[in-house]
Amino acid sequence: MARTQGSHSDITGPRVREAALRLFALHGYAAVSMRKIAAEVGVQAGALYNYTPDKQTLLFDLMRTHMEDLLAAWEAAAPAPETGAAAALEAFTRFHIRFNTRRADAVFVSYMELRNLEPENFNVIEGLRRDYETAAEAILRRGVAEGRFAVAEPRIAAMALIALLTGVNTWFRERGRLSLGEVETVYWDMVRRMVANQG
Amino acid sequence: MARTQGSHSDITGPRVREAALRLFALHGYAAVSMRKIAAEVGVQAGALYNYTPDKQTLLFDLMRTHMEDLLAAWEAAAPAPETGAAAALEAFTRFHIRFNTRRADAVFVSYMELRNLEPENFNVIEGLRRDYETAAEAILRRGVAEGRFAVAEPRIAAMALIALLTGVNTWFRERGRLSLGEVETVYWDMVRRMVANQG
DNA sequence: GGTTTATCTGAACATCCGTTCAGATCAAGG
DNA sequence: CCTTGATCTGAACGGATGTTCAGATAAACC
């Protein structure tokens, strides 16, 4: 018995990635076996190799896709350059919180499993991460140039900003006391003060 | 042939914990075998069981010790309550950065390996973490009561503060461009603005 | 210096791991 | 309706896993 009824590459492929992402986030890459992923999909372990050359590449593709989605989504959401830096920073703040809380598993995996990437794959993901940090840094530098932000160390402030915002993922739950919009506002209030010229 | 020359519980015990912490931080709990820890210590895998009942307890003890050290160190470093909230927040900021950058491995493990703890152990570590968050929250509430801080959501702000400060660990390297003291000052500058009354 | 005892070795246990592959199965195309 | 080819099964591979334990060793004590 092989090839169950209604089996298709279009269906199984995404399901493999979804199951892998969920299980990697829950238990960690090293703790999740190919057999467990296969069981989640409802398939034998061997079948996974129609969709990934190996386990490492499966992890890498999940992380690369997440980072590329993040960068593309910000490019699409970023206000026009002629808009002020303050508006850009507010947009970045709200975008980051909204995007990341909606993909908690991918965010978690992309940060936690860096050490399980082979060096070549690690460098790719690190490069994408640096691109995102640089986007945040550019906003801060623009604000300084406009005379609206007081930021002594823009690169450090950019990383501090991203750490601050990503922290939302550790506690935020839908149906909690605060809506996502309210959380965004609370954080934007903190971010605004953090970089403001008149302290 | 057993019991190598000069072997002692006082020596091997700490070395087991050091090796485990280092390797867990580097590769992750699930990816590090008891044999690898033993090899790092220069001993056979069986000998580790003189120092821990099992691998899970070894991880748990490392995390519990770290969290207890953190809480005890802050209790010792915290300024007297009659000191103002601003001074307490500066002390907290500098303390957190200094303490955590000096124990990067333990910080990393205590955050990354939460999901590899059995439920009972997880609850213990979570409780300790909450205690620390509550200490930060108390400072913010005091500042609000004193009329010096403007913080709409003290619990959220406390977690945001900790996420912001812990982020230093992802990029800080000794012998980098900035000394630890300079980094503390950069962050304290951001924290001060973040909670300041006049934004 | 002989005895005790903490400490460690080396082998064994059942179980799981990632990956491969021949062969079975079934949806689609002619 | 028959053929083709994509998809999946089930078994197998060598090797690694956490843990146990009888026996060997050497430091500490009398």
Structural account:
2 copies of one chain form a homodimer. The model of chain A has no long low-confidence stretch (mean pLDDT 95). Chain A is 68% helix and 0% strand. Chain A has 199 residues and is mostly helical. The longest helix of chain A is centred in the middle third of the chain and has 27 residues, at 119-145. Chain A has 9 helices and no strands. In chain A, helix 1 (9-27) packs across helix 5 (104-112), helix 3 runs antiparallel to helix 4 (85-101) and helix 3 (55-77) packs across helix 5 (104-112). The first copy, chain A, has 2 domains: 1-52, Orthogonal Bundle (Arc Repressor Mutant, subunit A); 54-195, Tetracycline Repressor, domain 2 (Orthogonal Bundle). At the A-B interface, helix 7 and helix 9 of A face helix 7 and helix 8 of B. Chain A binds a DNA duplex (30 and 30 nucleotides) through residues 1-9, 12, 33-35, 43-47, 49-50, 54-55.
